[in-house]
Structures are given as structure tokens and as C-alpha cells.
Amino acid sequence: MHVLMTGGTGFVGRRLAERLAAAGHTLSVVSRDPEAAARVLPSATAIRSRVLDFRDAGVEAIVNLAGEPIADKRWSAAQKRRLVDSRVTITRELVTLCRSADTPPRVMVSGSAMGYYGAQGERVVDEDTPPHDEFAHRLCAEWEAAAREAESTGVRVALLRTGLVLDAGGGTLAKMLPPFRLGLGGRFGDGRQFMPWIHREDHVRSIEFLLARDDLDGPFNASAPHPVTNAEFTRTLAQRLHRPALLPVPGRLLELALGEMARLLLTGADMRPRRLLDAGFRFDYETLDAALAAILSRGKRRD
Ligand SMILES: NC(=O)c1ccc[n+]([C@@H]2O[C@H](COP(=O)([O-])OP(=O)(O)OC[C@H]3O[C@@H](n4cnc5c(N)ncnc54)[C@H](OP(=O)(O)O)[C@@H]3O)[C@@H](O)[C@H]2O)c1
């Protein structure tokens, strides 16, 4: 299958690209910096800087992951615009490619996030739960709506409402491990907010699953069946590292330091992957402890 990816150089995209190339698929990637992308992608990958460069390339499937990182900068009005535009603009270009290709791709698996639901307190959340209206929700809703435009060309669209993606060498754990290794970890605020998470291998497997299953479309919560609260996450990571985690970070301090972006750390949703489980997807890493054990032991073997 010929797969076109955006965000192929990212934390998730790089691993997906490796797996797709190893499985014998033809891979094309859109990147803002094709030279840098060539250094991290499988050698046979075709890399261009614009989506429409692949208009006549016979693309059969699309995986759309590109976007400005959500937690790198304070959410000023300009940064919020960048977070939305960096996702919606490239998604619209993909829809244009679908409209103008002689034979449209069969499927587009497109990014979204647990932020779609906004702050949900302790309620159990599945794909039918009404969202809480806030910036993260509006960002994801615009991104999803842009992707769903491809449906009018006959393309099957599956949306990934992704939890925190965990693995060595990037993502959330790259930020959390240094303080926790020093014994300086601690919960955020009262620690009762949920942190849905997914091992990166399960996440890329879920993308492959959605690419392959012609009967599946619409939103899918991409997170392990056993989400944890921030307090449980903190405790489990500290135990795995054999370090104390006794220094809670007060919510008020996070709000002062990060502004509205503190909501990423202080609110969440008890999100469950109901539609993936109903469709028969099986997670290799169901519990946080099992995922962290695998990730940290791999890290150790590499040291
Ligand atoms: N990782 C997580 O925990 C997580 C959780 C929920 C949702 N997600 C979503 O899933 C997607 C993939 O996650 P990831 O962790 O692999 O992301 P990532 O490592 O931040 O990579 C995303 C890619 O998007 C491109 N990009 C970055 N800034 C951009 C900008 N301003 N304009 C256009 N393109 C830009 C980059 O590709 P080039 O430099 O090659 O152009 C980058 O490699 C993201 O959209 C993210 O929002 C991730």
C-alpha cells in the first residue's frame, strides 16, 4: 500500500514509518524540512515539502499527524492560532489532494487528542461523551471537522483521540523522567485529574489497525483500557524508578507559570477506548505499570 504521512518525522510518525517500511509499504512523507526528514526516515521514503507534490503519486492511504507541539509555549492568542492553523491548513491540503487525485485514497487516519473532551472530572468518557467547551476541545473539533471533509470524496476517515503517548526518547516521559530520576517528582495540584495514556507501540499498532479495517470510521479513543489519575501516574513512575515523589506542585503555581496551558496538567478525562475494544483491537500494554516496566527496561539495556 502507498501511504502518505504528515508529521512522519515526529515521535509517533517516526516509529510508524519504520513499521510501515518494514512491512513492505511504499512511504511518502510531507515535511517542512525534507533534508532533516531524510536523516530520520527509512531510506526509500519519498519526501516533499508540500502535500500537493504527491497529487499524482497514487496515494492509497493517508496518516495525518502534523502539528505545532501543544505544550512547548504559553498559549498566547498568536500561539493558539498557530496550534490550530498548523493542523487545519495541512489537513485541508490533504482534502484537496483527495478531491483532485484520479483515484482518491481509500482511507485517512487523522490526528486528534483526548483534549477533544476537555475537562470531564471523574466521569467515564467514551466516544459518545459530550465535550466540555474550552480551547483544547475547539482545537480538536476544528482539526477533526477539516479531516471529515475528505468523506465527501468517498475517503474513509478515522480520527485518533490520542492520550499521552509513552515511550523512551521523546513525548511526555522525556519531560517527566529527569525530575523523577532525581527524586523531585510530584503530583500536579490535587492529583485527581485523569491522564489517559498509551504505549507508543500500541498507538502505532492502532493506526495500522484503522488503516486496514475497511469497516471502521469516525472517532476512536486511542488510549489504554486502564487510564490513571495524575496521583497514580506519579506513584507508579516513582515506584518503577525506586525514587520518592513527595513534592506536589501546587495548581496555583502551575497556573501562574503556564497560564491557560496549565489546564493540560490540571484537568483531564477518564477516557476509555470503547470503539477500538469493540472492534477487536487488543492492547499489548494494558496497565501503566506494564508499559513503564517495558519502556524503562529497554532504556536500561541501551545505557
Ligand atoms: N505525543 C503525544 O503524547 C500526543 C498526544 C495526543 C495527541 N498527539 C497528536 O498526535 C500528533 C503526533 O504526535 P507526535 O508526538 O508525534 O508529534 P511531534 O513529535 O510534535 O511531531 C509532529 C510533527 O508535526 C510537524 N510540525 C511541528 N510543528 C509544526 C508546525 N508549526 N506546522 C506544521 N507542521 C509542524 C513536524 O514535522 P516536520 O518538522 O517534518 O514538518 C513534527 O515532526 C500531533 O499532532 C499531536 O498533537 C500527540
UniProtKB/TrEMBL annotation:
Highest taxon, organism lineage: Bacteria
Gene3D superfamilies: NAD(P)-binding Rossmann-like Domain
Domain DUF1731: start-end pairs: 249-295
Every NAD-dependent epimerase/dehydratase domain range: 3-215
SUPFAM superfamilies registered for this protein in UniProt: NAD(P)-binding Rossmann-fold domains (SSF51735)
The family this protein is said to belong to: Belongs to the NAD(P)-dependent epimerase/dehydratase family. SDR39U1 subfamily.
Segments crossing the lipid bilayer: none
Protein name: TIGR01777 family oxidoreductase
InterPro entries on file: DUF1731, Epimerase_deHydtase, NAD(P)-bd_dom_sf, SDR39U1
